[in-house]
Amino acid sequence: MTKQYESVIGLEVHVELATRTKIFCGCSTEFGGAPNTHTCPVCTGMPGSLPVLNKKVVEYALKAGLALNCGINKYSRFDRKNYFYPDNPQNYQISQLYLPICHDGWIEIETAAGQKTVGIHEIHMEEDAGKLIHDEWQDCSLVDYNRSGVPLIEIVSEPDMRSAEEVTAYLDKLRLTMQYLGVSDCKLQEGSMRADVNLSVREAGIKTLGTRTEMKNLNSFKAIARAIEAEKARQIELLEGGKPVIQETRRWDDNKEYSYAMRSKEDAKDYRYFPDPDLVPLEIGDPWIERVKSEQPELRTEKMRRYQQVYQLSEYDASIITGSKKLADLFEATADICKMPKKAANWIIGETLKCLKEHNMEPEELILSPQHLARLIQIVDKGKVNQNIAKDVFRSMFKADIDPDDYIKEQGLGMVEDPELLTNAVAEVLGEYEKAVVQYREGKTKVIGFLIGQVMKKMQGKADPGQVGEVLKSALEN
Amino acid sequence: MIEQTALQIGQKIKQKEISVMEAVEASLMQLRKSEPKLHAYVTENDKIAERALKIQEGITMGRYDSPLAGVPVAVKDNICTKDLRTTCSSRMLADFMPVYDAQAVENLKRAGAVIIGKTNMDEFAMGSTTETSSYGVTKNPWDETRVPGGSSGGSAAAVAAGSAAYALGSDTGGSIRQPSSFCGVVGIKPTYGTVSRYGLIAYGSSLDQIGPIAKDVADCAAVLEVIASYDQKDSTSVKRDDMRFTDGLSEDVRGMKIGVPIEYLEEGLQEDVRESVVKAAAMLEQAGAVVEYFELGMTEYVIPAYYVIASAEASSNLARFDGVKYGYRAVNYEGLHGMYKKSRSEGFGAEVKRRIMLGSFVLSSGYYDAYYLKALKTKKLIKKSFNDAFEHYDLILGPTAPSTAPRLGESLECPLQMYLGDIYTAATNLAGLPAISVPCGVDKYNLPIGVQFTGDCFQEKKIIRGAYAFEKMRGTWELPFMKKEVC
Amino acid sequence: MSNRLDKEMIEHVSILAKLDLTETEQIQAGADIEQMLDYIDKLKELDTAGIEPMPHIFLVRNVFREDEVVNADASEAMLRNAPNQSDGQYQVPKTVE
After folding, report:
1. Cβ-based contacts of A47 with chain B (< 8 Å)
2. Contacts with A54 from chain B: Cβ below 8 Å
3. Separation between Cα atoms, residue A387 and residue A410, nearest integer Å
4. What is the pTM of this model?
5. Which residue of B has its CA nearest to C89?
């Protein structure tokens, strides 16, 4: 008889905040940049340098905390976490242990099994470390402190998750929430969102927690799912074999699909947290919290509801469009300009998503502007181009956000306005394809499709097929 | 000219009686005479001539209106000076060239100061005798067999020897005041947060302050006025409405309530030091102050609390010295952690290592509550004892140090004994209070004794008034180099 | 009342402090810390029940800076004191992941 086990999972998610400057100094947080060009005495730990807190970081942390239903600590403080590593220029990280800014929140996730609430234990602010690159040639490591001091919030969940699916749903919801708040773009692949997984197993029905391990280096949702399955299996095997699970940090290798313990005797694992004497405590009063609350942007669920009510979108459409804040913004702005929300929705769900997929791009990378998309929709509505040509125009807009009016003019794509040109073309085609004419008059009305096609060819596509059909019909029946 | 005070020299320069170059040359000449014996400096400023000329030009053009424009200053070697080697008297920073000036130095430069050089100190400010310096000891100008005190021993010795008109020191547990006392000069530790700590290489961040060391109270007040400023780069910098410290230079102490803690005069205090301080109190009473002996309380807990907090902060502040970004990197090592350990073990001296070990221990898991948190609670009670005292008194008067300058080599034998020497000074760092040490007499070996005036937070003007008045009552004070032809 | 630091503890503390101590130095460090702790134990006499620890002297709160970029490229200055550098980066012995 095999025992039934369940895995108990908690997540520590680090989110890079999208402020302009670092948390404790006025260096730029811009991505890229040659090594060490966004550094100063503070973020490189020069002797005599001192940290000063970026107010925006606190604002963003508050927004995140409120969106995740957390309580805000009136008094919070920074503590030093002491450990030696080259990416940590002061060999201590300024973080918050004893009095973090937010506590005891929750988030709702949706899985196949239904809705579930995942608890948030706390959220705290801290500084990021620099980047280490391994130089195989010179058999050494190289340090770039551009990222040192970039502001992070760490979101620590309760161990409420039970499967990789729940973990993925949780991360998705977190990411979407952070994007909607505008506090981070949360890209797992780029490192602006990083997740460490704490996992323990226990026999089904047991209430106490087993010993947990921490897993790092999980750089994609797939890696996270694989790591969870592997670790669950590993722990079960140990327990079944009568061996204990050792509390340790393990590094996941996604290529080899296994994890190994990051044990080192040089790593005493005693961080000696104490209050940072260089920073004064934070006091966050009710007025500040109320102001942030009142400025909170609409989150996904609300937006979905509103899109269904105000724009009459279906739940399905609303769900797709609000799946990314960028898409939602594009939709809404476009709909407000052209006043045709249904059409705007179709263009987004149809061509936009299609192009994104083809180009392997994220919605955040869209350069298409709502003004131009709205214009295109209006042009099609007025009958100036037909649907096929419109799709062509759209593709160019997608690539370079060209102005559709200019483009149509330059390329001469406008539907032919002159009715005489159409009647001439129709007359020509009827002359060239006498057999088809006869067939039509004999009752094979379906052949009109072929004739429409030929007229469209003559018109170089610059005609509305519907209209062509009308003119053909009347010519054929006379 | 080197016998003049900084303000007097500044005045002469302003009135074109002497040039900046002449003032500098006089200091340098004195430096050449005294340095071979005293070794007060680690680095001399080799660009001083061009600076002197530049400042002179500026003064002539009317660009500088500070009373200290053109006056030569010595800066303690834990204060960053741009492009001028800053070592903290440690092997760890033997070749370190700061890429920026400390805010206090920037303030001085803007006022037209001319830096003579960087002065010797206890390594990373850890010590009370300047004997833990990796570059050799500094001798006391009053008696070359004795220490100048520490950790700002070089700065105090430079002023007492006349090679600088005034100096900057730093004070974490008494490091400005005690060497000032041992060298017969005046030193001030301002209220915490008054002088920016940006650019001061940190030892005990919640305790450190930069302050002036000079020949008299007026000089100190004037220097403090220049170096004090609200600095946005230092989160612990305090916005103060009134930093006109020279306004406190008054001789009138009538009605001032002065408290003398009884426990400060108990056993352990050198007899002639006690006599000298009691005499000072009597003089002040004669001049109209109300002097009372009272029980301050908490005195026996000051040193343990201080050392726990200072070493804990130091162990973290000194972690950045790892051979990666700057400073000493060992030559032979294996692997990353090997490099860390070797560089730090070879770069740091014994006292520094001792305090880092102690600090790491009191912060470590299992001991944090019993030691570090306990010390922070004690600090609160110490602060309360001063708050209570200042309800009744304008000033607290006492000896700066329990003795006069010990002989070289005596103190390092018993570190604990050396730590106890901070008994009168460390409390003011824990409570963030301002304090000034003024020479009040000499002992039977003709070694200077210092009396300390402590005030409540932000009450620099009061302590300056008490000290200035006392100074006037005490009368002229001759430094050794003023008495003899050759130092 | 005497504090005893065993060898293991001294080794642990020297790892935390990142210091290499010889056998003699370790013994000396142990003795030094023990002596200091015996003295520091004086604090145990003090009744601090109900007293909040005071990390900061003044009741100053909320010191901030604005989210404006004020620092330009200072890479040359930052690297000037580096014991070892390569391609604009600080060079260190290989870090093992």
Report:
1. 80, 86, 88, 93, 96, 98, 201-202, 320-321, 326
2. none
3. 18
4. 0.90
5. B325
Give me the long-range contacts of A430-438 (CB less than 8 A, separation at least 24).
Answer: A430/A472, A430/A475, A430/A476, A437/A476
Q: Where residue B349 falls among pLDDT bands split at 50, 70, 90?
A: very high
Query: What's the CATH number for C1-69?
Result: 1.10.20.60
User: Is residue B440 included in any domain, yes or no?
Assistant: yes
Query: Are the C-beta atoms of residues B228 and B193 closer than 8 Å to each other?
Result: no
Q: Which residue has the higher pLDDT, C32 or A78?
A: A78
For residue B92, the 8-state DSSP code is: G
Would you call C95 an interface residue with chain A, using a CB distance cutoff of 8 Å?
yes
Residues facing residue A110 across a β-bridge: A115
What ipTM was estimated for this complex? 0.95
All structural domains of chain A: 5-288 (no CATH), 298-411 (no CATH), 419-476 (1.10.10.410)
Q: Cβ separation of B236 and A278 shorter than 8 Å?
A: yes
**Structural domain total, chain B:** 1
Give the C-alpha separation, B295 to B383, whole Å: 14
Q: Which residues of chain A have pLDDT under 50?
A: none
C62: closest CA of chain B, how far (Å): 9
Q: What is the spatial distance between Cα A343 and Cα B311, in angstroms, rounded to a whole number?
A: 69
pLDDT at residue B99 in the model: 96
Contact (CB, 8 A) for B115 and B151: no
Q: Tell me, what CATH number does B115's domain have?
A: 3.90.1300.10
Q: Decide: A251 and A259 in contact? Cβ < 8 Å.
A: yes
Question: Does B288 fall in a domain?
Answer: no
Q: Which residue has the tokens 């008059």?
A: A441
Q: What is the DSSP string of B29-56?
A: HHHHHHHHHH--EEEE-TTHHHHHHHHH
Domain that holds residue B211: 6-258+391-483
Residue B487 pLDDT grade (very low, low, confident, very high; cuts 50, 70, 90): very low
Asked if A52 lies within 8 A of B324 by C-beta distance, the reply is no
Beta bridge partners of A274: A80
Who's near B197: CB < 8 A, 6+ residues apart?
Answer: A48, A50, B205, B208, B209, B210, B234, B236, B237
Q: Is B239 a catalytic residue?
A: no
Average pLDDT over residues B215-224: 98
pLDDT of A1 = 52
Q: Where are the domains of chain C?
A: 1-69
Helix, strand, coil percent values for chain B (each to nearest 5): 45, 15, 40
Residue that is written with structure tokens 């030009």 in the block: B57
Task: Retrieve residue B374's tokens.
Answer: 């306990």
Mean pLDDT of chain C: 90
Structure tokens at A393: 């125009």
Chains that touch A (3 or more CB pairs under 8 A): B, C
* pLDDT confidence band for B486 (50 / 70 / 90): very low
CA distance B200 to B102: 6
Q: Which residues does residue A201 pair with via DSSP β-bridges, in sequence order?
A: A7
Write the pLDDT tens digit of every residue in A206-219: 889 999 999 998 98
Does residue B341 lie in a domain region?
A: no
Report if residue B109 sits inside a domain.
yes
In chain C, residues with a C-beta closer than 8 Å to the C-beta of A84 are: 18
Torsion angle, CA of B139/B140/B142/B143, rounded to 10 degrees?
Answer: -50
Please, what is the average pLDDT of chain B? 96
pLDDT at A465: 81
